[in-house]
Every structure is written in C-alpha cells, then in structure tokens.
Write the structure tokens for this entry.
Amino acid sequence: MKVPKLQIGNIISEIPILQGGMGVRVSLSSLASAVANEGGIGTIASVGIGDIEASKHDYERISREAMVREIHRAQNLTDGHIAINVMAVLSNVNDLVRAAVKEGIKIIVAGASLPLRLPAVVEDSSVNLLPIISCGRAAKLVLRAWDKRYGRTADGIILEGPLAGGHLGFSREQLKEPEKYSLINLLPDVIEAIKAYEDKFGKKIPVIVAGGIYDGKDIARMLLAGASGVQMATRFVCTVECDVSQKFKQAYLDAEEKDIVIIDSPVGLPGRAIRNKFLKNLKIKGKLKINCPYKCLSTCNANEAQYCIALALVNAYFGDLDNSVIFCGQNAFRIKKIVSVKELINELISEIEAF
C-alpha cells in the first residue's frame, strides 16, 4: 500500500500520522518536534505543564507561559507541523488557544467535551480547528453549531474510539461493548455526517481516527475504510524523545493486558489507566483530602472529588508511581521496548507499505 499524505486545510503532512496530545507533560516539545521531523504532525498538550508551586498563585499566566515556552522550543527543533491540544473543560482554555495562535500555531485540536465555541476564540481562518468527537451524532452537533453561530466548519475531525487512553467520551456501559463502538463501526456515520458541510463549504474535512491504533496494519485498515489519517498517542510514550520519567515508561513495558483498567476520573468521565498501588489504595481509603488552589477544570468540584487528577498525573510524569494515575491506551501492554521516534515511524511506514 502506498503511504498517503494527510491534508488538513492548507497544511500537508508527509505521512498520515498525527501524534496525539497527552496531557500533564507527556507530550511536550521534544516528542512533538521529533514526530514533525519525521513527516508527521507533532502535538504539544497544553494542560498541566506549568510549574506546580508557581501555578498556585497565578495559574492562568503560568500555564500560558509554560505552553509558549514549549511552542518556542518545538519551533527551534523543527520546521515541521506542530499542533496544540486543548481540553474544552479547562478553565483557561480560551487564554491558551489565543496564546497558541499568537505564537504561530496553525492546528488546534480540542477535546474533553464538545468545543462548541472554539471558532469564537479563533477568528483567523488560516488556523485549522480539529474537534475530537466519539460518534457521528457528536460530529453533527459540532458542525451544526459552528455553521450556525460562526459560518465556519471544521478543518478536520478526530474520531476517538473506546480503546483510547486517558479520559474517554464513552459511558462505562458503552465501554463494555468495544466491538459495537469500534472505529470501523463508528467511521461510516462520521463520514456521512460531514458530507453536507463539505458540500456547503466546498472543502474536504478529513476524518482522523484515534484509539487503539497500534501498528501499520491498523493504520492501513483505517485508511482503506475511509479515514484520511490516524492519531496515535500510546505508542509514542515509550520513545526516547518522550519526556516522562523512566519509571513511567517502565510501567508500560511491565504492564500486562489484565493491568489496563477503566477508572472513574474526578472530572466526571471514565478513563483508561494502568492498575497500580494508588488505584488499589483509593478503593480502601475512599476520598483523599484535596486542597486545590488551581481550579484548572471547570467540571471538577474539588470539595466532592475523590482525588486530584492533575496531581496524580504530575506524579506519574515525575515517576512517583505509588501516588499517580498512569493513563494509557488499551494496547499499551503490547509495547516491549523503548525506541526512537524515527525507529517507530519507520516501522509504521514499513508495515503500511507491506499491507
């Protein structure tokens, strides 16, 4: 199979791979620039990257400045394409988006609830907006809202399935039926949902699928099914360029399939993580004491939350695994070694070509 390019608006990626944004310091400039240098689209996740102590006193400014630093570092490391991932439920999401655009970012990926008002924040039509959705109905809701309110449509759609890592856009009941909600089954509805908007705005809206994409064979199958590209995150954790601690990466390497579980996140969504001492202790201790100075998520009530998800994810980054949540995709257990981004991309491309 010939490896196709991926076009998003006026941006052309040499390979159809978008590295997924992994929050709280997992995908920063080092990883994103390495992916971009190999012809893909690298993504910096904007959430949870500011200094912990400084953020207690000026969360919005510290978060913005930390993201801008990562953007500058990536721009110094690559001439390739860099995206910024934002969570629509962040209390400072608009500030982060405006800052990213100001720094020249041309791809904004938005998930964690439907980003219905994103075009109001990004007036520059040369900036490509990609909402993350979980089904055709959600795609229609976003595209209808953007069309009606702003006379604009998406420049791409990211369809994230139930095998993804981190916070998930599916209920626990739906997650029990992964085949029913598989990407192969969800993709046709999304492609159908965007047709009217492609016709109205006279442009192709590429659908990029995510969640459980592990190897080049998976990528090839998705491309043949009608996707324009794939978003991959979990595979990039165990790369040399990923900034997380060695202990974080080792948790992936040591994980067995039975260790990957669905948890209830304090933000009100189910999430996928590696079972560890912290998660086991939560069942015994119940609610942990929280003193939250950040107010980072609009959907999080610190008074009622069982624990602070942001702190648990920061702990994972630093390697304090006994006090952390280690997010991962369903196929994390299949990773058995640490490789460079170049090695991983070359492997994926070879597998696509051999399909």
Remarks:
- The mean pLDDT is 94.
- The chain has two domains: 6-244+336-353, 246-323.
- The longest helix spans residues 59-77.
